[in-house]
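user: can you give me the structure for this one chain? tokens are fine.
assistant: on it. calling the predictor now.
[tool input]
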Amino acid sequence: AVEKYGFRIIGLLEELQHREAKLGSHHTDTADVRYNMGRLYQQHGDLDHALRSFNRALRAYTDNLGTAHPKSANLLYCIALIYKERAESGLEAEARKEFDKADADGSGVVTMEELEPLLGKLFDDVDLSLCSGPQTVVALLLEVFEEADSDGSGTLEFPEFTNVFRRCLLSVAKGYFETAARSFEAEFGESYEFAT
């Protein structure tokens, strides 16, 4: 870990262990360390670890402080940026890997039944209740699947799958951006808009 993230990760891991032992894993002070770890991972391009750290911190913040608190809003914004970045850069390689997993029979297409568990796993940390729009991954998938299935076959070829994957990522980003904006507006009395 030191080779990849520098010595700062050692201090953060030690502090996390200390705070979890003293305060518990769901305390907001412990969440602060998880947030700092997420930022470090994000700065080093490790978006998967960043998302895991941010989502654990977000759960603690929203449960203890509510979604309108600036710490919650800031994390919603950080998570939204990651989903937006994933949707806009280098998605094809990630989508190909996930498509090949979903296409277990090697037919070159995926069905809704093959896609649902995959996207459920990919978005298992997403709290869609914090977003406007579909409130479950299945509902989001149904909405996006029907639009992407351009030939009406009930299956998606790789380009259609990539579009579904991108639209799901952007939908989550948009929902988190909107929730963060409402929280910032409530806290600071100013209107916020984030480009999605």
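assistant: here you go. The beta strands are 110-111, 155-156. The first strand starts at residue 110 and ends at 111.
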